[in-house]
C-alpha cells in the first residue's frame, strides 16, 4: 500500500509515474471508508483525488502555495501532506477537520470554509511574492459552482488587471451542491463541448490566459498540464473537466444528495439513520410553503445554492416552477433580489444558513432594511448545536442582525410558532422579517399560545412567579424552563418564565414592569454573549435599577466542539445557572 507510506509530498514525488493511479485508487477507497464512518463531503473529495495527487507531484508545497476554494475538497490533500492516518486508522478519524486549517499543517494556508475566496487569496499571495522578489508558484483551486459567487467574479477581474502570475484551476464538474444556476454555465458547457475552443470564452474576455483539459480525472494528464504552467508570468486558467463523486456509484448517480452526508454503508451507499429527534424544519418549510405558493403566485422561494435547507427537493423545485429561484452561491444577490421582489409587490422567502447570511451584511443593511422591504428571511442552523466547524459557526446571527434598523427578527420556540410567524410575515407589508428557525426542537411542558399577529413587540409569560424573571429566547426556551424547575426544586424560588419571541425589538412596557416587580432578570440565548440579545435587555433595564444576568457563549472560534461542553465552559448548565442565580439573589439582599 502506497498511501500508508506517504508522510509528505516528497513521497508522492518519489513514486514512479505508473504507481500514481494506484495511489489515487487507494486514496479514493480511504476517503469512502472514513466518510462512511463519520460522514463528510463525499462527492467533492472523490472528484479531485487525481488533481490533488498531481498538484503535489508537480509543485513543492508548502513553498509553492496551493489555495483550495471552500476547502471542503481537501481530504486527499490532507492525506498527502502527513495526515494519511486520519483517513486510514478509524481511531484517528477525528484528528483532522473537514476544512483547511493552518493549525493542522503548514500545507493549509488559510482557515476557510466559505466559497469563492481562493482566487482573491491567491492573487494576494502572488502580489506579495512579486513585491518580495521571490519565485514560488501560487495555485488557486476553485469549483465551477463557486464561480457563481460575486467574490470570484471580482477576484478574476482584478487578477487579470493585476498581472501577477499564478494558476487558477477551475474544477468543472457541472455541479454546485445542486445543479448550477447562472449565465456563466452556458459558456462553461460550450467550452467543455468544444474542448476549450469556443469563440466565446468568459475567462479570455477578462484578459486571462486559458488552457483546457478534458481528462480532469487522469492524473498523468493533469501532471503534464500543470507542469507546463509552472512559473507562469501572467494569471492563467486551467479549466479541467471532472466528475463529482467519481468511484462511488451512489455519489456519481446523485451528486446533490452526496455532496455532504452523514455516516453510510460503504458497500451499498445506504445512509445510517439520523439520531435527530426534533422536528424536521426543512420538511416543515417546504410542505407548508408549497400549498400557499400554488394558491398565491406572488410567493417566491429563494435559495443561494442550498435548496435542501428549505426542503425543496428536485421534485418540489419542479412543482414550484418559476416560483422557486436558485441564484447560485450568491447570498448578496439573493438578499438584494428578494428586497426588490418585496418592494414590487411579491412575497419572497429566502432560506439561508446563518453562517452564510453574514456574507450579505451590506445588502441586508442597505437594500433590505434601508428600503423597508417586506421580505421574509428564514435563518437556518443558527445555534450552538448547529455546525461546529469553526469555518461554519452560525450562532453570531443575533449580534449581526440585532441592530439592523427596521428589521423584525423573530425567534420561535416550536414548529407551531414557526409556522405562525411565517404565515404572519407572508401576509404583512410593513417591514422586513427574519425568522430564526429552531435547531433543537426540545420539548417543553408549557402550553404556549401561538399568536396570529407579530405586528407589535410583545413578550409572552409562560409561568408567573416572583423575585426572578427568566427570559429564554427561541430554541433555548426549554433550557429556561429547566432552570425554572431547578430553582423551584432546590431553593423554592418560583421564577417568572418568559418567551420573548422578538430579537431585534424590546417589549419596553413589559420590561419596565418586570424591573418594578422582580429583583433579578436572567436572560438565556443560543448565541454569543457580546453584542447579543441579553445585552440589549440589560442596557434597557440598567437605568431602571434592575439587576440582570446574561447567559450566552463568549465570542471566539471554537472548532469541532461538543455543544454541551461549550455550554458548560460558559456556565450554561442548569446547575451552574441555578447556583449563579441563587448567589446573585443573596448579593442583592
Write the topology of this structure.
Elements: H1 9-14, H2 20-38, H3 42-47, H4 49-58, E1 65-68, H5 75-83, H6 85-88, H7 118-132, E2 138-143, H8 150-162, E3 167-172, H9 184-193, H10 202-205, E4 209-213, H11 219-229, E5 236-241, H12 249-253, H13 281-295, E6 299-303, H14 314-320, E7 324-326, H15 331-343, E8 347-353, H16 354-357, H17 361-369, E9 376-380, H18 397-401, E10 408-410, H19 415-427, E11 433-436, E12 460-463, E13 467-472, H20 477-491, E14 496-499, H21 508-517, E15 518-528, H22 533-541, E16 547-553, H23 563-569, H24 574-588
Parallel strand pairs: 1-2, 2-3, 3-5, 4-5, 6-7, 6-8, 8-9, 9-11, 10-11, 13-14, 13-15, 15-16
Antiparallel strand pairs: 12-14
Helix pairs in contact: 4-11, 7-8, 15-17, 20-24
- Record the strand order, biggest sheet: 7-6-8-9-11-10
- Helix count from the secondary structure assignment: 24
Distance between the termini: 71 Å
Number of strands: 16
Largest sheet: 6 strands, parallel
Radius of gyration: 26 Å
Helix content: 25-40%
Strand coverage percent:
5-15%
Poorly predicted residue ranges: none
Structural class: alpha/beta
Mean pLDDT: 95
Shape verdict = globular
Question: How would you summarize what this structure contains?
Answer:
With 589 residues, this protein is an alpha/beta fold. The chain has 24 helices and 16 strands.
Task: Explain this structure.
The chain has 589 residues and is of the alpha/beta class. It is 40% helix and 15% strand. It contains 24 helices and 16 strands. The chain has helices at 9-14, 20-38, 42-47, 49-58, 75-83, 85-88, 118-132, 150-162, 184-193, 202-205, 219-229, 249-253, 281-295, 314-320, 331-343, 354-357, 361-369, 397-401, 415-427, 477-491, 508-517, 533-541, 563-569, 574-588; strands at residues 65-68, 138-143, 167-172, 209-213, 236-241, 299-303, 324-326, 347-353, 376-380, 408-410, 433-436, 460-463, 467-472, 496-499, 518-528, 547-553. The protein has a six-stranded parallel beta sheet with strand order 7-6-8-9-11-10, with helices on both faces. It has a five-stranded parallel beta sheet with strand order 1-2-3-5-4, sandwiched between helices. A five-stranded mixed beta sheet has the order 12-14-13-15-16, with helices on both faces. β13, α20 (477-491) and β14 form a beta-alpha-beta unit. α4 packs across α11 and α7 packs parallel to α8. The protein is globular, with a radius of gyration of 26 Å. The chain starts with 8 loop residues before the first helix and ends with a helix.
